[in-house]
Amino acid sequence: MKTVYKFCRKHGLEILNNLELKITPPNQFNDPFEFTPYIWCSDKALYLQREAVCRGLYDLTGAKNSFRGSFAKYREMLKLLLARPEAVEKIAEVMKETLPLTALDVLNRVSLELGILCVSRARDSILMWGHYCDNALGLVIGFDESHPIFRLEEGLKPVHYGPQRVVFDACWEEGSDEMKRYEEEIIVSKNADWIYEAEFRQIFRLSSHELKKRDLVNKCTGLKTNAYFLPFPAEAVVSVTLGPRCCPAFQKEVIEVLHQPHFSKVQIERAILKKSDFVLEFEPVKSA
Fold first, then answer.
1. Which DSSP symbol is given to 262?
2. Are 130 and 1 in contact (CB under 8 A)?
3. How do the residues of the chain divide into helix, strand and coil, expressed in percent and rounded to 5?
4. Helix (H, G, I), strand (E, B), or coil: what is residue 157?
5. Is the dihedral of CA 100, 33, 121, 114 positive or negative?
6. I need a surface site. Which of 96, 141, 178, 208 has the fewest CB within 10 A?
7. Which of 141, 134, 139 minimizes the C-alpha distance to 117?
């Protein structure tokens, strides 16, 4: 059996109590490069002739009263203009200033539709314990990777790490092979600096009936935000590992939760610091 791990601060106790995992839109992630491709245009004339782009130019010229004919007439005129390279560059500059498509636009559009469950293959990374477990005070929940919950949608996918951003060509048509490859690649691509996370991802549409939607209130601003959760059965949990700095009171709380009958097969361990090396080891925790 292969295990994937969810690194948690003390809210890991809520995950065990509620049997829910949070599904997060990518614009809430800590990496500002998430879902932000390198955008370019391989053929400006072709791009400017696309209906949506042409419609934007038509609306712009109409607002400035520089063209009063129909959209069909405007599109015919534009096609003739784009046969001249100097006109292509001039019109492209207008588009760049008035109807830009930025990497941030891509991120925010995606985040309106998709949420991501992030887990890791490794539980022995001290960086992960430090970054995601409240300086090693929290816990890590181990899940059976083969459980059906991780086969929903397209299932878990390993993240690929590299030095360059994913390329997006503005000329690609929706549904094209190039666009499909891009959509698959952008979901699982990250900067090589994050390789220590050994991350796996599962993508969900936020409209999915599998998710529960709730309002969360920001403790600092008091504003409500939408939050999405994936319910899971207790049988999907195979282990809980307490952090090396976990306090006795929190350990006691976790053990009390895991004493419930539906967690009877869950292995409880604690991460400890190896005496001679910068290495984490794991030892069983007595449940009584």
1. G
2. no
3. 35, 25, 35
4. strand
5. negative
6. 96
7. 141
Contacts of 97 (CB under 8 A, 6+ apart): none
Number of CB atoms found within 10 A of residue 278's CB: 7
Model confidence pLDDT, tens digit, residues 213-258: 988 776 666 677 789 999 999 999 999 999 999 999 999 999 999 9
pLDDT at 99 over 60: no
Burial class (CB in 10 A: 0-12, 13-18, 19+), 157: middle
- Does this model's pTM top 0.70? yes
Name which of 191, 193, 192, 173 is nearest 183 in CA terms: 173
Residue 113 one-letter amino acid: E
Q: What is the DSSP secondary structure assignment for residue 29, as one 8-state letter? A: S
The helix/strand/coil state of 220 is coil
Nearest one of 274, 201, 284 to 241, comparing CA atoms:
284
